[in-house]
Design a protein that fits this description.
This protein is mostly helical. Helices cover 38% and strands 5% of the residues. Strands 1-4 form a two-stranded parallel sheet. It starts with 61 loop residues before the first helix and ends in a 6-residue tail after the last helix.
């Protein structure tokens, strides 16, 4: 979701008018709403004609960002890209309501930029959750103190759900309970259904399950040729080409973030 907090299409960042403080007085005018200007005409909603904050890549002022405890969930592009692409083509697109795939929405670049910004201003770090240096001390990234850097990789979570969730809870200050990995009661199932009902087609695997267990077989990395062959069979030559290009475009950002992932 970080993708939606960052200025679109690589445009220079500016703070959303509805979230910035507007000083009123002599020489100031009312704030525009939804792109409306003082003369009654309209303009594109972005970029906003608001002040920017140095190095802040989001539309949120740092004052608001500072109210949140940020943690990050990442997934290998080889898994996430084809998974999302599948939701935008037949037959699943009729269920999801998503009929177009936009490679720029992969979001890795935006997550990395927000991640680095939060580190640079000391909101996260220098400690890295679940990692220690050779002398047993917590790894530091060289910036000022903040909450621990907490990054969860989806593959690590699927390999060791209890270990990763327990480490996550320890990092964010939540008491760990093994029942967190289960949603097998009628109440839990209803809560999950209510939470995901706006996103039909995206979370059926979760809805059809009752707990998070370690996967039975270790995930084996496929070579490029086998991946491309599988994607061509599922999505055709054009779809496979889009997936491969999007995967490669996001690998560097994923691998950068991966180095900070919780290790258990």
């Amino acid at each position: 979701m970080t993708y939606y907090l960052v200025s679109p299409d690589g445009k220079p960042p500016s703070i959303a008018p509805s979230l910035g403080r507007i000083k009123r007085g002599v020489g100031t005018s009312e704030a525009s709403i939804n792109g409306a200007t003082d003369d009654g005409t309209t303009k594109a909603p972005y970029p906003y004609s608001t002040d920017t904050e140095p190095k802040n890549p989001t539309v949120l002022p740092r004052e608001i960002l500072g109210k949140f405890h940020f943690t990050f969930l990442i997934r290998h592009p080889r898994s996430s890209i084809p998974s999302y692409y599948r939701c935008t083509v037949p037959p699943l697109d009729k269920t999801t309501g998503f009929y177009n795939y936009t490679p720029s929405e992969a979001g890795y670049d935006e997550v990395r930029r927000v991640f680095d910004y939060l580190r640079s201003v000391g909101q996260i770090g220098p400690k890295i959750a679940g990692q220690a240096s050779n002398d047993g001390q917590q790894i530091s990234n060289g910036f000022t103190q903040g909450v621990e850097i907490c990054v969860v990789d989806a593959d690590d979570l699927l390999d060791n759900p209890s270990g990763v969730i327990e480490a996550y809870c320890r990092s964010v200050g939540i008491d760990y309970d093994p029942d967190m990995l289960k949603w097998n009661t009628e109440e839990d199932q209803q809560q999950a259904k209510d939470a995901f009902e706006k996103w039909p087609g995206f979370h059926e695997d979760v809805m059809d399950s009752a707990e998070l267990k370690p996967r039975e077989h270790e995930k084996k990395a496929k070579n490029v040729e086998d991946e491309d062959k599988e994607w061509v069979e599922k999505y055709g030559e054009k779809g496979a080409k889009i997936i491969r290009e999007t995967v490669e475009a996001n690998m560097e950002d994923y691998e950068y973030l991966k180095q900070f992932a919780i290790k258990v």
